Automatic annotation (TrEMBL):
It comes from the Eukaryota. This is Uncharacterized protein. GO terms for cellular component: endoplasmic reticulum; membrane. CDD domains: CYP90-like. It is a single-pass membrane protein. One of its GO terms (biological process) is gibberellin biosynthetic process. InterPro entries: Cyt_P450, Cyt_P450_CS, Cyt_P450_E_grp-I, Cyt_P450_sf. The chain crosses the membrane at residues 6-25. Its cofactor is heme. Pfam families: p450. Keywords: Heme, Iron, Membrane, Metal-binding, Monooxygenase, Oxidoreductase, Transmembrane, Transmembrane helix. PROSITE patterns: CYTOCHROME_P450 (PS00086). Belongs to the cytochrome P450 family.
């Protein structure tokens, strides 16, 4: 009996010691980072900095790899209240302030003077130190100004329409004869073909397929933990970036050599790479090879990933809601009916007058949230929602919680394009592409691609999903686990 009692005492002591150790471990991050703030630490927002090194990342990854990604912040809301929407945490290797409400989100995104870019080092390594996410505010303004017209300008968009429309028509026709397809896979190839044509002037199927494969690997590493060890997503992404840079550098070298020799290629259309190699700022300075390559790499990644996923989801939502499909199709038929004799193909004016399909796209962007968050960094001690944001801490603005806020959008997960009737969202309440000076530079081009595809889909086709109950994956983007196995059925031969 005495020995048994001693064993129980020993077990209790060990168990108690284990929990004490866990308690100490759980507070290491807080002690290490908050103690440096002195008395100011008492003005930090609610939350916790999680475990050493990994912080809140396991909780985040567990939530977003489950069937309930919103559980990550539901826990914060239950513990600390939903308002004012500012919490402390430790994400992607840094102490941070997480923003989930419109007002503080607007303050962070619109105040470039006090909140600089703050993307994790691993993301900058993958996207490029000379891309929009890796450069200073001064460089960003210069680079954005130089690239804005060739990407989103009225003239550029008008030029792109014909190729986008031809590609949409031929792709839908092809898919309708293929039987079962992975709709997401095919849509991503469709958007990648378009972006490759616009930026690199290539339509070579083998080149496009090889580069698209590398981009898929790259994108899976952007929000993975930065573990540069074989077998991990980040390690594979770094290799993919190296391969992509080599391809782009070869193209840049070839074009610079042709330019120096005064050689022109007969019949070659001027593409985005040509424009970037020729462009000069007001001081006559050209872009370096690294700047050209990183800008192209970033645009090509964002330009096909976001457009592809949103196009898939808009198509799914339309097919899932017959009343919305019917109304959207009627709008497309009206365009054809009112078209002047002799006109072939869409015009930019027609596309910008498609009011209802624009609401379909806006509602899809709101629900799907192609970007979960954006990263900033406090340049000095700041006040946000009544709480301290320490200098040097990362500030993560969570688009998903803003776009799905039930107080702004009743029944937020319900697909309802009519919620946009006579409704203009207040600043900070709708963030599909961010806001402020670092608003996504390719947003107009993305919406143009999506709208043109939906125009032709609605007129002539229907989507038949083979597994509509497929589980969803939320990282790096929301998608069905089966990549939307489906058939595309042709239902009309209406002239377009």
């Amino acid at each position: 009996m005495a020995e048994s009692g001693l064993l129980w005492v020993g077990f209790t002591v060990l168990l108690g010691g284990f929990f004490v150790f866990l308690g100490i471990l759980k507070n290491v991050n807080a002690w290490f980072y908050e103690s440096k703030l002195g008395e100011k630490r008492f003005n930090l927002p609610p939350g916790d900095l999680g475990w050493p090194l990994i912080g809140n990342m396991w909780t985040f990854l567990r939530a977003f790899k489950s069937d309930n990604p919103d559980s990550f912040f539901t826990n914060y809301f239950q513990r600390y209240s939903r308002k004012p929407g500012v919490y402390k945490g430790f994400m992607f290797g840094n102490p941070c302030i997480m923003v989930t409400a419109p007002e503080p989100a607007k303050q962070v995104l619109m105040d470039d003077e006090n909140f600089g870019t703050g993307w994790p080092k691993s993301t900058v390594e993958l996207m490029g130190k000379k891309s929009f996410i890796g450069i200073s505010d001064e460089e960003h303004k210069r680079l954005r100004k130089l690239t804005q017209a060739p990407v989103n300008g009225h003239e550029a968009l008008s030029v792109y329409i014909k190729f986008i429309e031809e590609t949409a028509v031929s792709s839908l026709e092809k898919w309708s004869g293929m039987g079962e397809i992975e709709f997401l896979t095919e849509i991503r190839r469709f958007t990648f073909r378009i972006i490759m044509h616009i930026f690199l002037g290539t339509e070579n199927d083998q080149v496009i397929a090889a580069l698209e494969k590398e981009y898929t690997v790259l994108n899976h590493g952007v929000r993975a933990m930065a573990i540069d060890i074989p077998g991990f997503a980040y390690h594979r992404a770094l290799k993919a970036r190296k391969n992509l840079v080599a391809v782009f550098q070869s193209a840049v070298n070839e074009r610079r050599q042709r330019k120096a020799a005064g050689i022109s290629v007969p019949g070659k259309r001027k593409d985005m790479m040509d424009a970037l190699l020729e462009v000069k700022d007001e001081k006559g300075r050209e872009l370096s090879d690294e700047e050209v390559i990183d800008v192209l790499l970033m645009y090509l990644n964002a330009g096909h990933e976001s457009s592809g996923h949103i196009t898939m989801w808009a198509t799914i939502f339309l097919q899932k809601h017959p009343e919305v499909f019917k109304k959207a199709k009627a709008e497309q038929e009206e365009v054809i009916k009112n078209r002047p004799p002799g006109q072939k193909g869409l015009t930019l004016k027609e596309l910008r007058n498609l009011d209802y399909i624009s609401k379909v796209v806006d509602e899809t962007l709101r629900i799907i949230n192609i970007s979960l968050m954006v990263f900033r960094e406090a340049r000095k001690d700041l006040n946000l929602g009544g709480y301290l944001v320490p200098k040097g801490w990362k500030v993560l603005v969570w688009f998903r919680t803003v776009n799905l806020d039930p107080e702004i959008y009743p029944n937020p997960m319900q697909f309802n394009p009519s919620r946009w009737d006579n409704y203009i969202p207040k600043p900070g309440t709708y963030l599909p592409f961010g806001a402020g000076g670092r608003l996504c530079p390719g947003n107009d081009l993305a919406k143009l691609e999506i709208t043109i595809f939906l125009h032709h889909f609605l007129l002539n086709y229907q989507l038949e999903r083979l597994n509509p109950g497929s589980p969803l994956m939320y990282l790096p983007h929301t998608r069905p686990l089966d990549n939307c196995r489906a058939r595309i059925r042709k239902v009309s031969s209406a002239a377009t």
